[in-house]
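Lab notebook page, bench 4
Experiment: in silico fold of construct C2
Operator: M.H.
Input chain length: 470 residues
Purpose: comparison with the prior construct
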Amino acid sequence: MKAFFLTLDALGEEGDFLQDWSCKGRKFLDLESDMEHKDNMARLIKKAVCGVSGAKRIGSGKSCAGANAAGTERHIDVLDGVRALAVGLVVWFHFWQQSWLTPNAAFHGSLSAYLGIQGFGLERFVRCGYQFVDLLILLSAFCNFYPYARSILLQEPWPDTKRFYLKRAARILPSYYLSLLVMLVIMLGEGVSINTFFWKDLVTHIFCISPLFPDTYLRTNFNGVLWTVQIEVLYYVLLPWLAKLFRRWPALTCIGLWSCGLLSSNYIASEKADMIRVLGNQALTFAGCYANGMILCILYITIKRRQRENRYTHLASTAAAFLSVWYLHRMMGQLGGAEAQVVQLQQRFELSLVFSVFLLSLFFAAGWVRFLFANRTVRFIAAVSYNLYIWHQLIAVKCKVYHVPWWEGDTPPNKLGDTAWMWKYQILIVVLSVLVASVLTYGYEKPVAAFLLKRSSREKSRENSGQKDA
């Protein structure tokens, strides 16, 4: 045993863990004369190799046999970029509603005229940025179901339900309730009427059920974007049980969720079109999105384990990603009419499929494409994205209400075509939103979440020690 640990110390100083460890392990075993003892030592060395290689990134191609069987990362880098993109486009849409600045560029010249290129614009993506809420829903379904999918396919331990609830609550609720508190102070300062609706609005937001009531959903005095957080809270409550159903009856679970999403969406669009503003974003209409996120997890892990990546798979995946973006742009062209909300609801399931194809393609795309979604800038945006999402609309609206940057009269400058003011306003609300999101993320959200999780771990340790003493 002493020789074994001396070997471990020597191996820790080497550069290539697997090569040196296995080589020195074989030398060590050759010194052993007892066959049974040799087998025991081999198992110990193999376990040590797995432990060190597991400290490296899983899926790097240099891990032990057990990690190679998984072949998948626990954290998928490109998802940071997807989250940053989705939140960024939703934020841009809300800013566009206030500033009316549309990102279009006209090309003038003989070459562009010869090629038939008149200009370049992101107008459809900005004007239809609300569609990317569906991408955030799909992303949430994927990320939260991913540990369960790994357990189903890779025989990893099943996630603890209590721990899942605690982590989600520590991540989501502190910033959510802070935003309610700040809005409550602002409303009282502005002289809001303390009546029956005020209390109903407050209570339904505290318990994350305001979308269930038409008045609190449409006429809320709180931050309008919080309805999505409340939809997500309901999903978090149901996910551990949906995961158990999926583990036992995967096909029936998906068919059930698809049916709920498709039937509810088509019923509302055809029979309740006059109430579509109230019913169009209920949790039931997103059921298909959640099912597709769960299936996407299974597909990703399965392909990652069985498919060897090469230049051809990278090329095909990159092409599929660009085709999905092109098809998405085409779909958004259908949302410009008066029945945009009806079309949006009817396309919700199809849209989630397009987003799923985009995500799956991105996982295996060329390196330069993945780099666009996995670099320091997008990781920072992804890190502050939750608070950016919560606060951006409130900041944009209140700046305009309080005439910041300053403007005179009753008609907002964007309605008068004051481009200079529109640009100053746009820059201001972007900077303020990112600044507020950064301060609250690193000064409040993360410390509070860490405190809550640490406190829970301490309590669990006390309970375990108490049980042992008993």
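Observations: The longest helix spans residues 419-469. Residues 1-70 have pLDDT under 50 and may be disordered.
Next step: discuss at group meeting.
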